[in-house]
Amino acid sequence: MPLPDEFLWGVSTSAFQIEGAFTEGGRGPSVWDRFSPVRDDDTGEVACDHYHRYADDIALMKDLGVGAYRFSVAWPRVQPTGKGPANAEGLDFYDRLVDGLVEAGIDPVATLYHWDTPLELEDEGGWLGRDITERFAEYAALVADRLADRVKLWIPINEPVVVTLSGYAIGEHAPGKSLLFGSLPAAHHLNLAHGLAVQALRANGADAVGTANNHSPAWPESDSPEDRFAAGFYDTIHNRLFADPQLTGAYPEEATPFLPIVDGDLEKIAAPLDFYGVNYYNPTRLRATGEGEPLPFERIDIDEYPKTGFGWPVVPAGLTEVLTSLRERYGDRLPPVYITESGCSYPGEGTSPEELADQERIDYLDAHLRAAREAGVRGYFVWSIMDNFEWDAGYSQRFGLVHVDYKTQERTPRDSYRWYRDVIARES
């Protein structure tokens, strides 16, 4: 299908996963500093050393031909404790980054929060407490005051469902809490922080503000009423708990008893958006659990499709299902859609021609890009421009169009990099 005018070809990263330089420039500690090390004693302390090598990384993106780069701002780098005046050195780094992108002809797309909560705020209650929402709005205003004149698109919070479920419900991510349904206040406060940040960004000159929610089709294992209920329950938590209030101003009815809603909150959460970002990786298959289990569902493998190095099923039709369901559910309330993350991990630690020939990644991206364009989205951001620290998996998973040698920090483009460059050149 023909692409819309001004289609954004992009790549994505996040601060904690690539920047390194933990002790430089006045950066404060985050929840991930405490949660690390993870697998194989990996930490993000150096990561891809992007803090020092950002100019080289911009040069790679310019050669790639992308029109946009989605990065995240590290909250602890701007406000080391999550409150108070801005740390000038921290904002100066993002000033240099944004200037370099603009000079290279690449639109900056800024995410304010990609999971790196300042540690002091977490110790005061984190996303379980209401106070953090005002702190986040103040932080948003500080960043926008410095960067709004050059940033094209703004995303307040990346994948709040992952923060809620992986960070607070089951403890796989920082801050490592296992609260199950006790995590749901965090969901509401993430939504409220999103709404307050939208207001703060607009008040400080931001042109286009949206969101980036993770979506996963919920497939019941069987057609039994129990499995269909399990899938519906998961769909509510994963797909609707954030999209519903952001786009309609109302939570799913079954979720409201668990949420500390105050009068006026929903109007703030539903602040109008200029775009809606979809992060998609795979569908989820659900099976009902027995009586007395802490959750009414369990996730089970999807074995009939190829899998990535992470063991995630490769299902491009799942992206079509997500985009179709969003349009059916929200209609005119759904703003223009961007695919703000789409990517896959595969082995390839070396730089031999055989290891750089990542045909599986090319096939994955080609199929998902076709699904995205057939749905009429406004842009597509590959996760990721380079290999990075992959949260609880450390450096064991490689998502990059560009290989990173973590010992030497040498960057080496894979075949997928050249493929994406050719696609952009042909289609732009």
Automatic annotation (TrEMBL):
Keywords: Carbohydrate metabolism, Cellulose degradation, Glycosidase, Hydrolase, Polysaccharide degradation. Transmembrane segments: none annotated. The active site is at E159 (proton donor), E341 (nucleophile). PROSITE patterns: GLYCOSYL_HYDROL_F1_2. Pfam families: Glyco_hydro_1. GO terms for molecular function: beta-glucosidase activity. One of its GO terms (biological process) is cellulose catabolic process. Substrate binds at Q17, H114, N158, Y281, W383, E390, W391. It is an enzyme of class 3 (hydrolase). One of its GO terms (cellular component) is cytosol. InterPro entries: GH, GH_1_N_CS, Glyco_hydro_1, Glyco_hydro_1_beta-glucosidase. Its EC number is 3.2.1.21. It catalyses: Hydrolysis of terminal, non-reducing beta-D-glucosyl residues with release of beta-D-glucose. Belongs to the glycosyl hydrolase 1 family. NCBIfam families: BGL. This is Beta-glucosidase.
